[in-house]
Amino acid sequence: MQIIPAPYPLARPRRMRRDDFSRRLMREHTLTADDFILPVFVHEQAGRAPVPSMPGVERLSIDELLKVAEQALELGVPVLDLFGVPDPDAKTADGRIAWDDDGIIQRAARALKSRFPELGVMSDQALDPYTTHGQDGLIDETGYILNEATIEALIKQSLSHAAAGVDILSPSDMMDGRIGAIRQALEREGFIHTRIMSYAAKYASAFYGPFRSAVGSAANLGKSNKKTYQMDPANSNEALREVALDIAEGADMVMVKPGLPYLDVVRRVKDAFGVPTFAYQVSGEYAMVKAAAQNGWIDHDAVMLESLLAFKRAGADGVLTYFALDAARLLRST
Ligand SMILES: NCc1[nH]cc(CCC(=O)O)c1CC(=O)O
Ligand SMILES: [Mg+2]
Which ipTM score applies to this complex? Predict the structure, then answer.
């Protein structure tokens, strides 16, 4: 697009900014509650337990989850994304509780779908909350994450979630080929409506710290990292290749993660493929806004909405954000 601007004073961009009506008229992007997916942590305990590194976020019992779901529905937030917090002594090297039909996610999904069938239920597929080593997959004696063996575990986890009523599976493990394998298993078992949002371009990021405390995998992971399967933050051509593979394997939607520091990747993915594209504003991003706001250094609500709008400007169709309910509430009142 070649624009030959009229010279000043014929062109005065400030004319359009002068009044609220003309600012609104030329606004290119808007936020609504439809743009949000709320991640929630579901634990085996009764009641709620705060996550200290994520002020305002709590681990929820299934009873409490139903209350949050009711608020989401009331505010127009379309989807809840479930993360399981198992009891520490239920963890094993193979994370098998992840595909237990009576596991925390399976019970939570059944409770949500029977009480609020119209609310979208999404869940995470990866083994990290359920393994004693805190890695997303199965490991060999050297600690390397085994691709094929992990895919078999992810298929079991995925089918168990789909059978419990989960509408959107979101494999977050970054094994090669798992989207195709899960999609084929879903088709074979008759789950033809189950959607897949793949964590297609997921980076080995330091911004996940508070999440790992929230699901209780931080201590299990210890000093090890996820660099042999999550992407190098230095790369973005590689992200396009990862996204192309996941679309070809049958993903309905793709995701880039983390969010704000990776908006360049969101834009490239959207421009290259034009598929439903999402971004995850992760725990560390949330914690930074909270911490600065608690110190009185930034305006919490203004920064929250500005950061969410930035995802839309970058081309995202929606955002996974711990701010979902607060933002939806604020948007309703303005
Ligand atoms: N595989 C699990 C998973 N799913 C979402 C997040 C991070 C979410 C956040 O930081 O908010 C992680 C952590 C990780 O990969 O270590
Ligand atoms: Mg991949």
Answer: 0.97
